[in-house]
Amino acid sequence: MVPQIVDNSAHRLRLYRPISPAKSTGILTEPSVACNQCADLCVRYAIRHPRELRKAIQIAGENIADKTIAEVIPESPCVSVSFVELAKGAVWDDVVEYHFRCLHCDEKFWLHAETYHGSGGYWEPKDPKSIRENITN
Ligand SMILES: [Zn+2]
User: Fold this and answer.
1) For residue 44, which phi and psi values (nearest 5 degrees)?
2) Which pLDDT does position 41 carry in this prediction?
3) Centre of ligand 1 from the C-alpha of residue 31, in Å
4) How many Å lie between the centroid of ligand 1 and the Cα of residue 106?
């Protein structure tokens, strides 16, 4: 029997680029604004291309599926496609705007982009203090 290592996080894509392993001091010095569950999502991810929007949608969908975050639907949404449909591959509106919150620490996130004119947008925490990293491709 070959022992199997189970890593629940292995399947999950990450928005941020892998950082080189830090020197192990045994002390975590990460910002404490967000919890460990949503820390990977606390980045400002620039969306300037449909593939970047698709990736952001995919990652948000995976984090909903594993119950890290949940969609927050506004009273009068400005989008006609639900995020669930979008995550399944539906075509997005000219304006993309979806809201999410961490189920563990209530950190708020949103995905917003203007796709028609291609001016793009961001995946980001609503609180700028929670942004750990800016990612532009
Ligand atoms: Zn959290």
Assistant:
1) -100, 105
2) 97
3) 12
4) 6
What is the pLDDT, as a whole number, of residue 34?
A: 81
Interval between CA 77 and ligand 1 midpoint (Å): 24
45 vs 48: CA distance, rounded Å: 10
Stretch 40-64: mean pLDDT = 96
With 0-12 / 13-18 / 19 or more C-beta atoms within 10 angstroms meaning exposed / middle / buried, residue 82 is middle
> Ligand 1 mean position to 104 CA, how many Å?
5
pLDDT in tens, 61-89: 999 999 999 999 999 888 999 999 999 99
Cα of 8 from ligand 1 centre, angstroms: 17
Q: How far apart are CA 73 and CA 59, in angstroms?
A: 18
Distance in Å, CA 74 to ligand 1 centroid: 20
